[in-house]
Design goal:
- It contains twelve helices and 16 strands.
- The protein has about 425 residues and is an alpha+beta fold.
- The chain folds into two domains: about 90 residues, no CATH class; about 220 residues, no CATH class.
- Strands 1, 2, 3, 4, 5 and 6 form a six-stranded antiparallel sheet that branches. Strands 7, 10, 11, 14, 15 and 16 form a six-stranded mixed sheet that branches.
- It starts with 15 loop residues before the first helix and ends in a 13-residue tail after the last helix.
- It comes from Modestobacter italicus (strain DSM 44449 / CECT 9708 / BC 501).
């Protein structure tokens, strides 16, 4: 032994205790002795705490390889019990010696037969092999090599993964690209970050000012324009029951006059279209998140729409009207050379339009409760509009939060109890 007294194996040479113990152990349990100090002065673990650990299992049979001269014979042996005995020292999982032992049947006078004995580094190699098996896929067209020292480093210090990434970032990116689940996790994580950014833009004036300062010479509306340019999915999955996609993957803002999109003329803050076999054009205009929704009380209990709201509605209506007049009922997709793409059209039959403006907390009273007359006036005004549909920024944020919170790792929506 490498040190310490094993209570199951008498140092006086009596093997009866060890045999009886091995025969009586239950296969679905792991056994460990009480801790002791390694007492061999020549051992690197001298004075360190150690334990013996045991595991038994019963086999139906095994293969045995024997040789007679140049002839090798593989024969089947009868089943029986096998015991694995480990000496661990210094820290959990540090195997210093390993035995694989054949346990005699009950009633036999034979002692434990050692089939394999590995010491120190060799025992560690076997343990590493068993750990690495979890990292090696069963299927694969290419061979796989796992660096044992790397695996040990990662198990010992997960932070070292950062250093590994720095050594070969391209390999890590390829692994992520090839892993559908990893890509889904990254996509969902990114969207959660963008929803948090949306929340900060809406609720933290200092953060909004810093974002605006990063766009010198541009107004408040351009902060939102820039944000939705980077996150068109928020408009695409939250504005309506249909899925909206960007007209142009490069930019949301587009000129919408003439027989083509992108020429000189009136610009829509966001030009989208529905997904599906028949696609329809969708327009969106962004106004300030702190723009007023209502003006003063016009008559008792009746509040008129603000100049910002009425002006935004007029602007959206004018953009859509001019686009329909000058483009017509449908617009063909264009190839890179400017030619039409056969069968690829976007329709402008009473196209949908949206005005994103303000926030609903304006409709609260001085004590923070609902101001029913203001809510009634605002809701009646926007519900009676044929176009555009008026959406406040906090409503858009709430839809984005719901979508992200109820999207699984694989990108599918999860059922939610309302």
């Amino acid at each position: 032994m490498s040190g310490g007294f094993d209570p199951f194996e008498s140092p006086g040479g009596n093997e009866n205790i060890a045999v009886t113990s091995a025969q009586g152990r239950i296969a679905d349990r792991t056994y460990a002795t009480a801790s002791f100090s390694v007492n061999h002065p020549q051992s690197r673990d001298f004075g360190e705490p150690a334990r013996f650990v045991y595991k038994v299992f019963d086999t139906d049979g095994a293969s045995e390889l024997t040789s007679e001269g140049d002839q090798w014979t593989v024969s089947e042996t009868t089943g029986g019990r096998v015991q694995i005995k480990l000496l661990v020292a210094r820290e959990a999982g540090a195997v210093k010696e390993l035995w694989v032992q054949k346990v005699p049947a009950n009633g036999s006078t034979a002692g434990l037969k050692t089939l394999l004995n590995l010491k120190r580094e060799a025992a560690g190699v076997l343990v590493d092999l068993l750990k690495n098996l979890e990292l090696i896929p069963v299927e694969g067209e290419t061979s796989v090599r796992v660096d044992d020292s790397l695996v040990r480093d990662l198990f010992a210090n997960p932070a070292s993964l950062v250093e590994v990434y720095k050594r070969d970032p391209d390999r890590f990116r390829q692994l992520i690209t090839d892993d559908e689940t990893a890509r889904d996790v990254i996509a969902i994580s990114h969207r959660r970050q963008q929803v948090e950014r949306f929340r900060k833009l809406l609720n933290e004036p200092g953060y909004f000012r810093s974002e605006k300062a990063a766009l010198p010479g541009r107004g408040t509306e351009h902060v939102w324009q820039n944000f939705f340019e980077q996150n068109p999915w928020i408009l695409g999955v939250t504005l309506a029951g249909q899925l909206f996609t960007s007209w142009d993957s490069e930019r949301l803002r587009q000129a919408v006059t003439g027989r083509s999109i992108g020429g000189v003329g009136k610009e829509a803050d966001a030009l989208l279209r529905t997904a599906g076999r028949v696609r329809a054009m969708v327009f969106a205009e962004f106004k300030n998140h702190d723009a007023s929704l209502l003006d003063k009380e016009y008559r008792s209990g009746c509040w008129s729409p603000s100049q910002d709201l009425a002006g935004g509605v007029a602007q959206a209506q004018g953009t859509v009207h001019r686009a329909v007049q000058e483009i017509g009922d449908r617009l063909a997709d264009s190839a890179e050379d400017g030619s039409d793409v056969p069968g690829r059209f976007t329709y402008l039959v009473r196209p949908r339009s949206y005005l994103i403006i303000g926030r609903l907390d304006e409709l609260l009273g001085v004590s923070g409760g609902d101001h029913q007359d203001k809510i009634r006036s605002f809701e009646l005004y926007r519900r009676h509009l044929h176009e555009p549909e008026v959406i406040t920024y906090d409503e858009l944020l709430a839809r984005a939060e719901w979508f992200v919170d109820n999207t699984a790792v694989d990108g599918s929506a999860q059922p939610v109890d309302f």
